[in-house]
Amino acid sequence: MSRAEREASAPRGFVPRALLVPAALGLALLVVPLLALVGRVEWSTLVADVTAPAALSALGLSLQTGLVATLLCIVLGVPIALCIARSGDRVAALLRAVVTVPLVLPPMVGGVALLFLFGRTGWLGPLLADWGIRIPFSTPAVVLAQTFVALPFLVLAVEGSLRSVGVGYEQAAAALGAGRWRILLRITLPLAAPGLVAGIILCFARAIGEFGATALFAGNAPGTTQTMPLAIYTAFNGAGVSQGTAVALSLLLLATSVAVLLLVRAWRPGAAR
Amino acid sequence: MTAAALDAHVVVARRDFTLDASIRVEAGEVVAVMGPSGAGKSTLLGALAGLVRPTGGRVLLGDAVLDDGSRRAHVAPMHRGVVLLGQDPRLFPHLGARDNVAFALHARGVRGVEATRRATSWLDRVGLGGATDRRPAQLSGGQQQRVALARALAAAPQALLLDEPLTSLDPETAADIRSVLAEQLAETSMTTVVVTHDAIDAVALADRLVIVERGRVVQHDAVRAVLDAPATRFAAAIAGVNRLEGVASGGGWASADARLALPGSDAVRRPAPTGQGRALVAVFPPAAVEVRPGGDPSRDPSAWPARVVRLEATLGGVRVVAEADGQLVAAELALAHAADLALAPGVPVTLRIEPAAVRLLVS
Does the interface ipTM go beyond 0.85? Predict the structure, then answer.
């Protein structure tokens, strides 16, 4: 079927035409600010702005912490997703609610919560201090904050994918004599790959965009905890990088988001690879 | 191949249903299991495969205890040496046909080139030599079931369980796969349990037939013996014969209230001594029932007044199901003959049963 035929045969229903007006306004609200941002970009100095030492440092830190946080999310999140997907309905609903809380929680609150766990007077802080480990306001704190806010994205995406695949293929593999690890690596995870890839991409995007929890829990120290979003915020408050750099970094984050979106959309399970 | 004897007594107690069935399959033997829907056939296979944990009984495969009703003795599906092949072939959708078969070989430690070589040869054996790289989605239903069979056999199980493997296929494809199955089961001397709803599968594949009804085994014997002497109404239905319960009467058979009778004659096959009034079952094929117009049986004692209940199409004819004194009797007629009789539900007819085709059995 060609695209035109598909569109012609798509169900149209009977929605009031007047709703086109608020729909158009809403779309404008989503798109126009981003156009305004792009409009402010000083294209002539773009390269110089992005490669300014302060900008490069923020960019590098964001990429490193974002990647480490994403790895951490995979290592912790895939097992959580497997637990949820293979539990009974009630346990699964409970676990899913627990995982979803950080998703709907203002990240600022997450930052405060992390501080109360790892801070000097927190539950774990003093214990870690005895070992000479101090987490708040360090680069590991950035990673922890990013993991905290990004983990739910990965878990929910992978869990949905695992659940829709079901256990039938696992049973078939077990009946053929395959062990649990072989079933996981050769059957379960490959079949859940679409959700896994989407989850990883969303997770990474969320991690590098993280601001609230990082600001409270990790602080804003250039070079160790000042990631791109923090650098942008600081610049508009008149300190750190120049505003031109801030706009350039914003553009970079926007471009990253669009790229992420395209990557997720381009991933089609079963497509010729 | 190391086929082993399967000796199972499976008890699965659920709130509203209890399965309590024993089944024994000698090494290399094929046993068919038939029964009405909900009789517990699939639960039985699930328990043998280890997907359902029995609440009692004992499952032995060769010398190994796979289950004895306790959690501790339960052997997980992957360690039982038993492969279950169901109606849904459950081919791994992300692997090609050959890789699906190779998965079973990898699972038992066959590596690399050797696994590929053996997987290809298994696909050849089930008649799929050319389709090795195709994904399951690119294969027809029959081809998928062939790959699933190759994969199951490649796992070299000690016993193979087939749960209605031909049900989702069209008749022609089912016939093809049935002959591939028969061939491979014979060639590999596989200990096999096949659950089916089609007597043809039992005849074509199995040595013995077990009938399960309401969670219990109601008959088990050689396939031929079960079809010749069905012990229940269901067994009679799969054998395609009439089975009427009654009592011994004057050397012949009569219904409980004596309104229907099959007088004794030398032509009637019957068990040796049949004391008057003893419970006796009359078994006869629909083709041995003659249908005459009108409900007046004259004085022939083996002609019964009846009323047509329904008509069913058969290959080249009509099956007339008529009610005679509360019992349903099936008769088979040529289409033209049925048209002459102007049969329709509710029409009165007379049924005459050919004595030479009747078997009387002690029930």
Answer: no
